[in-house]
Give the backbone structure.
Amino acid sequence: MAKKKDDDLQQVMAEERSRGRRHPVRAVTLERERRIRKAAEMLANKECQKRDYLSGLRDLGLKDGSPEFLEFVKVWDDYRGRS
């Protein structure tokens, strides 16, 4: 819980320092939302194979082994199985 509080505090501080300028936290959040939306589209497509899904994640800029990449792989495995 303390880590979440620290992350929240850092986000607030970053936004306060960037008043009147582009918001870096918002840009990161929008990018993450785009990735989640694209991954959800691939999951919903019954014709999409796991190798296509992983390739799509890499095309979105995720690196193999990164925490976010592994999280998306876990979602695939939970939703579609480990095939």
Summary: Residues 2-80 form one domain. The longest helix spans residues 24-44. DSSP finds four helices and no strands in the chain. The chain has a mean pLDDT of 82.
